[in-house]
Amino acid sequence: MAEHDYVVVGAGSAGCVLANRLSADPSVRVLLLEAGGSDRNMNVRIPIGFAKQFRTDLDWAYTAEPDSNLIGRSMFLPRGRCLGGSSSMNAMIYMRGHRHDYDTWASELGAPGWSYDEVLPVFKRSEANTRLGEPYHGRDGELAVTDPVWVSKLAQRFVAAASQAAGVPVTDDFNGAEQDGAGVVQVTQRRGRRWSAADAFLHPVRERPNLEVRTGAQVRRVVVEGGRATGVQMLDGAVERARREVVVCAGAYNSPQLLMLSGIGPADHLRDTGIEPLVDHPHVGAHLQDHPMATLTFQCPEALTLFDATHPRYLAEYLLRRGRGKLTSNVGEAGCFVRIAPDAPAPDFYVYFGPAYYFDNGFRTYPGHAFTIAPSLVRPRSEGAVRLRSADPRDPPAIHLNFLSTREEMDSMVAAVRLAREIAGTAPLSHSAGTNIDPGPGVASDEQLEAWVRAEAQHVYHAACTCRMGPEDGGVLDEQLRVRGVDGLRVADASSFPRVPGGNTNAPAIMVGERAADFILGNVPAPAQPAGATP
Ligand SMILES: Cc1cc2nc3c(=O)[nH]c(=O)nc-3n(C[C@H](O)[C@H](O)[C@H](O)COP(=O)(O)OP(=O)(O)OC[C@H]3O[C@@H](n4cnc5c(N)ncnc54)[C@H](O)[C@@H]3O)c2cc1C
Q1: Digit-coded pLDDT (tens) for 176-198
Q2: Ligand 1 touching residue 81 (CB < 6 A)
Q3: Rounded to the nearest whole angstrom, what is the distance from the C-alpha of residue 254 to the centroid of ligand 1?
């Protein structure tokens, strides 16, 4: 039986940075446990290959429960299952969300200390941006953030067309002063290869003698004794002791699953599943959010897409010219933040652009050049839930998405689909846009568009909020990520967000990992005073 000071469960976006920061003190012993294996794989390393990981050993490959709002469909839910977690599988878009997201966390959602002004320095600390600097960007961190090595001509045409059709400026920084705008995204890559949280925070410190990283190590439950987390039990029954704390960083599906398997969760549900409740926590697994997305695809009469990217000459170019050419594309090359609701306090949609036919997670293919315009609702109100299917930790959790459950959300999705078509019909993109493949041109009325959204909408892989921070009567975690009712236990990952930010979720998960380290190490500035408050 080994003893460590800290046991971190899950080597994903948050877990990698946390393990790095905690083990920076050589007197502290850290154990990082990862259920998956190594990240040495071409489809991890070469950016365009991310979707080739789906349904392989690198993927938890979950399936959601049938969703009655989506004609009973069960969506495919990929999650990274190797060092780096989902940051080894994602589309590498570097996006933090809007100031409004974090200010709302702090002022309305019971997470004081998490306002934009308080989290901005933490984002900057992790970041090694190759172009942008102060006041919004860091250059000296470990997470490589860069302009893409290769951008399709179509992406540039999309930017011009989207700016015009949506009435937003062209931007070269979605993480700067203003989010509204159309532009090419920055990506977490270095020299044309993916730069995951493992590349940034874990591999460079693997030799530290006080950091033990174990792969193929799935945790079955947190051991709680006398109200305190004292360690974790592995699938084979072995126990790993934590002298100080256990930190769960297993992601938005697995962190609540692990808490519930440990007896921390809604008591009735736990009893129904045959688990003796230790702490009755109705909010564990609740409040699941993700960003619903509609993927419109268009034929392209010009050979300007990624359709031919599998040709060996592009692999040769990539390998011989050290990370150049089409294979460095993250597919989601450009986008546009826009406000569809007239009173939206921040952009309510992000419209993805990819110079490729990307439908049904890449499983459906098209035999020719095509591109995708995919509006996603970035401030959804619907909430789903993660529940246990059984007390067996090898069983996947039951994931109820409950997407688009309100009239307002559905109406705004239909309006966003219309905007996507308008963008495709605006010069200069219109010159490259042929038939609208999905939905077909005959799908035109509001009723038809709504039916199509229900039949085909997807998510953007941004699962969050299932162990959210919040007030005593609504949050699983306090504002320092501590699980209420259990000492020595924190959850730090995308499940900790009080509400899903209006942007992608890798950078925010890394920021949460950074902050978890700050809280544990006692490096915490006092929360900012609300405007107008007397000190
Ligand atoms: C296909 C895809 C594309 C995406 N594209 C983008 C994008 O372009 N930009 C962006 O910002 N975000 C993107 N995301 C989302 C983003 O990557 C995630 O939100 C983020 O990585 C989540 O970080 P996390 O730390 O919460 O969890 P994860 O990174 O998922 O880490 C959880 C880790 O815990 C491990 N684990 C789980 N259970 C156990 C257990 N019981 N015992 C031990 N280990 C366990 C997992 O194997 C995993 O390694 C994408 C995600 C996916 C899947």
Answers
A1: 999 999 999 999 999 999 999 99
A2: yes
A3: 10
Q: 534 pLDDT exceeds 90? A: no
Rounded to the nearest 5 percent, the helix, strand and coil shares of the chain are 30, 25, 50
What is the band of 532 on the pLDDT scale with cuts at 50, 70, 90? Answer: very low
Q: Is the CB of 106 under 6 A from ligand 1?
A: no
d(CA 185, CA 451): 31
Look at residue 526 in the predicted model and tell me its pLDDT.
Answer: 64
Q: Is 0.85 topped by the overall pTM? A: yes
Alpha-helical (H) ranges within 24-82 are 42-45
- Helices (H) and strands (E) counted in the chain, each on its own, are 12, 25
| pLDDT reported for residue 528 | 61
Question: Could you tell me where the DSSP H helices lie in 273-389?
Answer: 312-320
What is the identity of the amino acid at 459?
H
State which H helix or E strand residue 423 sits in. Answer: helix 407-424
- C-alpha 491/C-alpha 8 separation (Å) is 10
Give the per-residue pLDDT at 322.
Answer: 83
Domains of the chain (ranges; CATH) run 1-45+78-144+193-290+464-535 (3.50.50.60)
Whether the predicted pLDDT of 530 surpasses 70:
no
- Partners of 31 in the β-ladder: 7, 212
CA angle 177, 181, 101 (to 5 degrees): 55
CA dihedral 45, 50, 54, 58 (to 10 degrees): 20
For residue 423, report the distance from its CA to the centre of ligand 1, in Å: 31
CA of 13 to the centre of ligand 1 (A): 6
Task: Tell me whether residue 462 is one of the annotated catalytic residues.
Answer: yes
Q: Is 249 in the pocket of ligand 1 (CB under 6 A)?
A: yes
List Cβ neighbours of 265 (8 Å cut-off, separation of 6 or more).
256, 259, 277, 279, 280, 281, 284, 285, 388
**Residue reference for tokens 């986008």:** 335
Band of the pLDDT at 342, cuts 50, 70, 90? confident
